[in-house]
Amino acid sequence: MFTVCALYHFTRFDDPEALIGPLRDLCRSHGVTGTLLVAAEGINGTIAGSAEAVEAVLAHVRALPGCESLEWKLSTALDRPFARMKVRLKREIVTMGQPDVDPLARVGHYVEPAEWNDLIRAPDVAVIDTRNDYEVAIGSFDGAVDPKTTAFRDFPAWWEANKERFHNKRIAMFCTGGIRCEKSTNWLLGQGVPEVYHLRGGILKYLEEVPEEDSAWHGSCFVFDGRVSVEHGLREGPHLLCHACRRPILPADRDRPEYEHGVSCHHCAEETGEEDKARFRERQKQIRLAEARGERHLHEDVPPDHSDR
Could you count the other beta carbons within 10 Å of the beta carbon of residue 237? Predict the structure, then answer.
């Protein structure tokens, strides 16, 4: 059993590059795998390992400048969710592409999971899912608006094109763990939206704390690790990952004619050409050869980039 820790914190790092080496060394020395992104605006990522190893990394991160109030969420996985450890320097720890956005200045009103259902069922509230389309496709809240964006950076343009739909509405927003809403609520406030709310701790905290019988959530929640999805109680969901397009699929989708392991699924079969498919087939060949040698090929378990979550 592995402990999985999703974490993020916005703070000012004067020299984020200097943090990379010590973080990477600490994680590797404790057998921790996953992805941590560091930028001048803070830190974000998901790691996995033994409970003691994860706590050692958390202690290190909490000791970084301004990280005393670090946000993190723990869950478990039966199999190792990551093949390796990556610590990367990024321009943003979650990519919105809006240089004036500053979650440290102000954000929307936090709503605890226990109070979320009442808020989103109010007639004057519009609920907006800030996640990407492939995430929304496998689960969301009752009545939530799906912007159908392929990346978080597309959200501002979507809002500009659709804002009249939400005139005189209070806006409630949510995402996987809360980090996207730190930026999206700050951005909406900057656009003059007077009342903006967001789910504290995101979907993960809601699924952890709200009983399934009282839930307004339907489906599974996509996660950026080898589990692919989780459900109520943060138990592992049924989804697999298409290793060509990195979208979630169900086991039954492997029986569809478009599916070829590591090469295509029904989501992406028409999106790639024969040259791409040939490259993917060669990658799968190398993975099989690595398995025959008793090794694990590093490309097999690469999740989507955390910076775009």
Answer: 21
Rounded Cα gap, residues 191 and 178, in angstroms: 20
For residue 198, which phi and psi values (nearest 5 degrees)? -150, 150
Q: Distance (Å, rounded) from C-alpha 19 to C-alpha 161?
A: 39
Structure tokens at 50: 């033994």
Hey, how many other C-beta atoms are within 10 angstroms of the C-beta on 172? 25
Write the single-letter amino acid at 153. R
The span from the CA of 257 to the CA of 265, in Å, is 8
**pLDDT tens digits, 126-178:** 999 999 999 999 999 999 999 999 999 999 999 999 999 999 999 999 999 99
Q: Give the β-pairing of 2-10 and 33-39.
A: unpaired
Cβ atoms < 10 Å from Cβ of 213: 6
Active site residues: 175
**Structure-block tokens of residue 12:** 């000012």
- CB-CB neighbours of 97 under 10 Å: 15
Torsion of CA 225, 229, 230, 236, to 10 degrees: -80
DSSP 8-state code for residue 236: B
Q: Are 119 and 197 in contact (CB under 8 A)?
A: yes
Place of tokens 């090794």: 295
Phi, psi of 51 (to 5 degrees): -60, -40
Provide the sign of the torsion angle of the four alpha carbons 176, 178, 180, 186, taken in this order: positive
pLDDT in tens, 212-252: 999 999 999 999 999 999 999 999 999 999 999 999 999 99
For residue 16, the SS3 value is coil
Please give the radius of gyration of the chain, using alpha carbons only, rounded to the nearest integer. 20
User: Alpha-carbon distance 301 to 52, whole Å?
Assistant: 24
- Beta-bridged to residue 259, according to DSSP, are none
Contact 202, 130 (CB under 8 A): no
